[in-house]
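Hello, quick one for you while I still have it in my head. A protein chain has come my way and I'm curious about its shape. Can you walk me through what the tokens say about the fold? No rush at all, and the record is pasted right below.
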Amino acid sequence: MILAVVTALLTSCASSYNVRGTSSVSAMDGSKLYLKAVKNNDLQNIDSCEVVHGEFHFAGLLDTVRMVSLFMDDESIMPFVLEEGEIVIRIENAVQSVSGTPLNDTLYVFVDKHNQLSNRMAELSHRQSQMLLDGIDEEQINRQLSAEADEIALEEDQLVTKFICDNFDNVLGPGIFMMITSQYRYPVLTPQIEEIMSKATDHFKNDPYVRDYYQTAQENEARMNGTKDMEDVAAPLPDSTAVQPAAPLTNVPQP
């Protein structure tokens, strides 16, 4: 009897997560959704549910705050933070959002800005086609659009770098660092990564993914500065890079 009471008290005091979502995307109705996160350098299922009449729900005990990805079958849809509180997910063709808890509110302000930049970059190819149809000189088009692409790329670098630096000591910093480095075939040192690591706190540097990535990238850099071939340099990325691509940060299934 005493053991049952103690167990009940411990359970009642444990942190829990509650995720409620709605979707107007018809392709999702009746589908199985999964929450996946990196555990021990492996992408593992945490929870699952079905979309019923455009609604879905995850709930359970929370052992630690962590970045997760929402999957439909094997397709990654969007990242969010699994934390205590009422997490609200909205998935539509034009808008995807996560809100209701502090870290998710912070994350999706960043996601919206990042996706705006991605849309601006994608729009350049449409403008190129239109300018060609309008009879504008191709060299002039390339010069103008290349300058605009460079400006957008710089804005994106600054946005991502500032966000990671502002969130060194919570799960958002390492989580977004993981996403931006997943675009590389193997760990490399870029000016952006060097800037981030030069400002990083000990908490960020000691994150398992960040630590492994940076150490391997430094080793690869040393090899590249030596006499070894690129085949010797291409050490694989840590397994956890499979969590989420760098951009776009949301990926709504299409009908």
In short: Residues 5-12, 238-247 have pLDDT under 50 and may be disordered. Residues 102-133 form the longest helix (32 residues). The two ends are 54 Å apart (CA to CA).
